[in-house]
């Protein structure tokens, strides 16, 4: 007996394809790293931090902090602004901020 997908499942498969699940997975992958999540947590609560402050906050070198921040920026999770010799980072948009806040609330309910 050959099984075929129901119309509902076909529609769902098309919808998944349109929403680019791979892109969504990349966001969660980026946030799955404890250090990067710690950075994002700080940015939710402080709005903007320079690389030196991020390094101090996560207890690393500025090179390590820069590496994590660049990863977040490349995945459109953080954005940056240069002011003189310093680069300041912030959350890229409200959706990312909401994800962090929801995760924080959810983890407190556990």
UniProtKB/TrEMBL annotation:
CDD domains: HTH_ARSR. Pfam families: HTH_5. Gene3D superfamilies: Winged helix-like DNA-binding domain superfamily/Winged helix DNA-binding domain (1.10.10.10). One of its GO terms (biological process) is response to cadmium ion. It comes from the Bacteria. One of its GO terms (molecular function) is DNA binding. PROSITE patterns: HTH_ARSR_1, HTH_ARSR_2. Keywords: Cadmium resistance, DNA-binding, Transcription, Transcription regulation. Residues 16-110 form the HTH arsR-type domain. This is Transcriptional regulator. It comes from Kurthia sibirica.
């Amino acid at each position: 007996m050959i099984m075929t997908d129901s119309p509902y499942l076909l529609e769902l498969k098309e919808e998944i394809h349109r929403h680019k699940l791979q892109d969504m997975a990349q966001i969660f992958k980026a946030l799955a790293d404890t250090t990067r999540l710690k950075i994002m947590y700080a940015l939710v609560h402080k709005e903007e931090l320079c690389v030196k402050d991020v390094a101090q906050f996560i207890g690393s070198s500025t090179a390590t902090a820069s590496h994590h921040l660049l990863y977040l920026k490349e995945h459109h999770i953080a954005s940056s602004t240069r002011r003189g010799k310093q680069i300041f980072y912030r959350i890229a948009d409200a959706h990312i901020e909401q994800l962090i806040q929801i995760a924080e609330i959810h983890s407190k309910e556990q």
